[in-house]
Specification:
Length: 681
C-alpha cells in the first residue's frame, strides 16, 4: 500500500479503481474526492498520498442487554496498604468474588450495589470444549505467525545504517523469546518495484538512480541498493524468516538478468536470518494505475510474466543451491473484489500449473487494510476501529478468498495488513484501542487458518508497532500495538508448537456490547489451555467510572478445581497513547527491554464443575490460562533450545520434560524439514 518512498497516481485511481471502497465490502458507497497530501516525511523519502475511501456504518444496535451488578477488577486488587509491586500472598489465594458459589456470588452482587466504585456489567456464558476433539480450531500456529512487513525504502530505519538499530532488534528478539521463533518479516511494498540491485554500490542505504530510464509514475529503476542492504537485513534476530520482494515492474531488455542477480544476492547474503520465500512484484493489480504497465494488463498477463520470472529464478538461482521450486508467493494483490487477480481466476489462468516440470507457487499471498485514509464525509474514528463486527464485515470477501485458496491445497498468507493505511492516523491507530484491534485480528485470522499475518510498518506510520528512529522531533518509542504482538507471542509459545485457536460464539452480547465482545479458546497438546476474552467497548482514560463485561465460563468437569491465572492487556483507556502493559510487563522506549511493572499474581480457582466468572473492564482484554501463569513456562525454540519463562515463575509452571520431549522432537523435525527444503543443509 502507499508508504514513504512511493507516490500514487491518486486521482487516476480514485476515478478508475475504487480499491478503498472494495476494502470496505461496499463498492457502491465510495465518495470520490481529490487526493490529500500526507504529512511531510523524512527528506530522503518521496511523499505518500492518501486516497479516497468509504464510510463505515453499523446497523442499529439491538435493545440493551440485561445488566447485573458484579464487582469490578478493582475489587480483586491487593488492599491499598500493599505496594503494587508486592509479591503474591503466600498460601492458597483468596477466593475471588466471581468464583464463589452462585448463591453467595448473587448475594454479594446485591451488596455491591451499595458500594462505591463498583461497575455494572452485562454478561455472557461460554462453554469452550475441554478437548480439542470437540472444538472447531485452527491448525497448529507457527511461532512466527504474528509478523511484520517493512516497506523496502524504510528498511534501514529499522535495521540501522552503518550501526545496528538495537532498539528494533531487541523488540523482535522479545517476541522470539515468547513464541519460540522471531516474527516472520516481509520486506516488500510499492518500493520493491522501484529497486535495482547493484553489487558495486556499497553504502548502507539506497540512492536515487541518476540514469533511470524505466516506466512508471515512480520509475521501476529509480532506486539503487547493494550488498549492504542485505547485510543490514541480516541483523534481525537469528533464524528470522524473511519473505523478500523482487521487482516485477522493471521490464528493460535485461529484466531477467537483473532479477537473477538480485535474487542470487539475497540467497547468498542472508545467513543469520533465513530466506523463506520470494514475492515477485507488489500489488500488480495496481500496475496500470501506477504507470508500471500499459494496457492490456490483467491477471492472465500477470500469470504469464510471473511464471517466466519464477522459472528463471528457480533454474538459475534456487535449483543450483538445492532449494525447493515452490518458493514463490503470488499474487500479492491490494484488492480482491472486481479484479482479474482473484485466486480462482489466477488458478484458471494456470498459475498453479507446472512450467518446465516444476510447480512454483508455495503460498497464496494477498494484502488488505481495515481502512485506507482518504477524504470522505465521515473519517474513521477510534470507536469505528474498536467495533469488531466492522472488521468481520470489511474482511468478508477476503474470508471467501481464504477458503478458495485452501481448497487448492496451497496455504494462504496475509503479507500486508494494518489497521489504517497508508501511514496510520494519530489518536486512532496509535492508541490502546488499536492494540485490542490487533490482538483480535491475529486471533480471528488464526481461526480462518491464515498461515501468517504481517502488520505493515513504515518509520513514519502511526500504525507501526514502534517508531524506530528519531522523527519529527520525537525519539524512538513503543506503541500500544506492540503489546498485542507480545500477547499473541506468549499465547503461541504457551503451547510449544501445539497451540490451536478456536472462536467462541459471542452473538449473545448485545446492547452497547454488540460488536465489542470477542472470545477465543486456545488449545495445547489437544487440551483446553486458555481462553482469551476481549472487551473493545470504548472507554477513555479520562472517564472515572469504567463499566465491565462479565464472562461466565464453563471449562468442563475435567478442569474442576484447577487453578487459573489471569494476564491483562490493559491501559488507562482506549485513547491511551502510552502506559500499556501486557501480563504485568512494559517495554522500554530506550532499549526495547521488557520489565515487570506489576508483580501481582491473579490466581483463582475453578469450582467443582470447572466453572468461573470474571469481569473484563471496557477497553481491556485478558488471557485466562489453566495451571500456570502465561509466560512462566519454558519455550522451545525452532532450533531445539529453550528460553526461560519470560514472566514470573510459579510452582505450577511446566518444565520441558516427559511428554514435552515429544513436542521438542516434533518441532525440531519440522525445523529440519523446512531447512532442508530451503537448501540450508
Amino acid at each position: 500500500m502507499s508508504t514513504p518512498g512511493q507516490a500514487r497516481t491518486s486521482q487516476a485511481r480514485a476515478d478508475s479503481f475504487r480499491t478503498a471502497c472494495r476494502r470496505s465490502g461496499r463498492p457502491s458507497s465510495c465518495a470520490r474526492s481529490a487526493p490529500r497530501k500526507a504529512p511531510e516525511g523524512p527528506p530522503d523519502f518521496p511523499t505518500s498520498y492518501l486516497l479516497p475511501t468509504c464510510e463505515f456504518r453499523c446497523s442499529p444496535a439491538p435493545p440493551p442487554a440485561r445488566l447485573q451488578l458484579l464487582p469490578s477488577r478493582a475489587s480483586l486488587l491487593p488492599p491499598p496498604s500493599l505496594p503494587s509491586s508486592s509479591p503474591a500472598i503466600q498460601g492458597p489465594p483468596p477466593t475471588p468474588v466471581h468464583a464463589m458459589p452462585r448463591p453467595l456470588c448473587a448475594a454479594f452482587a446485591c451488596l455491591a450495589a451499595l458500594a462505591p466504585g463498583l461497575s455494572r456489567a452485562a454478561s455472557l456464558s461460554l462453554s469452550p470444549s475441554p478437548s480439542r476433539s470437540g472444538a472447531q480450531v485452527s491448525d497448529n500456529l507457527e511461532p512466527s505467525f504474528a509478523g511484520f512487513g517493512i516497506e523496502p525504502s524504510n528498511l534501514f530505519s529499522f535495521t540501522g545504517w552503518n550501526e545496528p538499530n538495537n532498539f528494533s532488534i531487541q523488540l523482535l528478539q522479545n517476541l522470539a523469546d515468547y513464541s519460540g521463533a522471531p516474527p516472520h518479516i516481509r520486506v516488500g511494498g510499492n518500493t520493491q518495484d522501484y529497486m535495482i540491485y547493484d553489487a558495486d554500490y556499497q553504502d548502507f542505504g539506497w540512492k536515487k538512480n541518476p540514469h533511470s530510464t524505466a516506466q512508471g509514475v515512480i520509475a521501476a529503476d529509480s532506486m539503487i541498493i547493494g550488498p549492504n542492504y542485505l547485510a543490514a537485513l541480516d541483523r534481525f534476530p537469528k533464524d528470522t524468516f524473511i519473505t523478500y520482494g523482487l521487482n516485477l515492474a522493471y521490464e528493460g531488455d535485461d529484466y531477467l538478468d537483473k532479477m537473477i542477480n538480485h535474487s542470487r544476492a539475497v540467497v547468498e547474503n542472508l545467513n543469520n536470518t533465513r530466506l523463506y520465500s520470494f514475492e515477485i512484484g507488489n500489488e500488480p493489480d495496481l500496475f496500470l494505475q501506477n504507470g508500471l504497465r500499459a494496457a492490456p494488463w490483467d491477471g492472465k498477463t500477470y500469470t504469464t510474466q510471473f511464471m517466466e520470472r519464477a522459472d528463471t529464478v528457480y533454474q538459475k538461482v534456487l535449483s543450483p543451491k538445492g532449494m525447493a521450486p515452490t518458493f514463490f508467493e503470488p499474487p500479492a494483490t491490494a484488492s480482491t473484489i472486481g479484479t482479474t487477480f482473484e485466486i480462482a481466476m489466477l488458478n484458471s489462468d494456470g498459475i498453479l500449473d507446472k512450467m518446465n516440470g516444476e510447480y512454483y507457487v508455495g503460498w497464496w499471498n494477498q494484502h488488505d487494510y481495515f481502512y485506507f485514509i482518504g477524504v470522505t464525509p465521515t473519517p474513521i474514528t477510534l470507536d469505528d476501529l474498536m467495533d469488531m463486527d466492522q472488521t468481520n464485515t470489511q474482511f468478508a470477501y477476503w474470508e471467501k478468498q481464504v477458503k478458495i485458496a485452501l481448497n487448492t491445497g496451497v496455504p494462504y498468507v496475509l503479507r500486508e495488513m494494518c489497521s489504517i493505511g497508508p501511514i496510520g492516523m494519530h489518536k486512532v491507530s496509535d492508541t490502546f484501542g488499536a492494540s485490542l484491534w490487533t490482538l483480535n485480528f491475529f486471533l480471528y485470522m488464526a481461526t480462518l487458518n491464515v498461515s501468517s499475518v504481517q502488520m505493515h510498518m513504515t518509520d513514519n506510520s502511526n500504525a507501526s508497532a514502534w517508531q524506530p528512529i528519531n522523527l519529527y522531533g520525537k525519539d524512538p518509542f513503543v506503541r500500544p500495538q506492540y503489546y498485542a504482538h507480545a500477547a499473541v507471542a506468549q499465547i503461541i509459545g504457551n503451547g510449544n508448537g501445539t497451540t490451536q485457536i478456536g472462536a467462541l460464539d459471542v452473538s449473545g452480547a448485545g446492547g452497547d456490547y454488540k460488536g465489542r465482545i470477542r472470545a477465543y479458546s486456545a488449545y495445547a497438546n489437544s487440551a483446553l489451555q486458555a481462553v482469551i476474552l476481549i472487551n473493545s467497548k470504548q472507554v477513555n482514560a479520562s472517564e472515572p467510572n469504567k463499566d465491565s463485561f462479565t464472562f461466565n465460563l464453563q471449562m468442563g468437569a475435567s478442569n474442576a478445581n484447577k487453578n487459573i491465572y489471569i494476564s491483562y492487556l490493559t491501559a488507562d483507556g482506549a485513547d491511551s497513547l502510552s502506559g500499556t502493559t501486557w501480563n504485568g510487563m512494559a517495554f522500554s522506549d530506550e532499549d526495547g527491554q521488557a520489565s515487570v511493572v506489576d508483580e501481582s499474581l491473579y490466581q483463582y480457582s475453578l469450582d467443582g464443575n470447572g466453572d468461573f466468572s470474571i469481569n473484563v473492564r471496557d477497553s481491556e482484554a485478558i488471557v485466562a490460562n489453566l495451571d500456570w501463569q502465561l509466560g512462566s513456562n519454558k519455550v522451545i525454540k525452532v532450533n531445539g533450545t529453550t528460553t526461560s519463562g519470560s514472566r514470573r515463575k510459579n510452582a505450577a509452571s511446566p518444565s520441558v520434560t516427559g511428554a514435552e520431549t515429544a513436542i521438542w522432537a516434533a518441532v525440531l523435525v519440522s525445523f529440519l524439514t523446512l531447512a532442508t527444503s530451503l537448501g540450508a543443509f
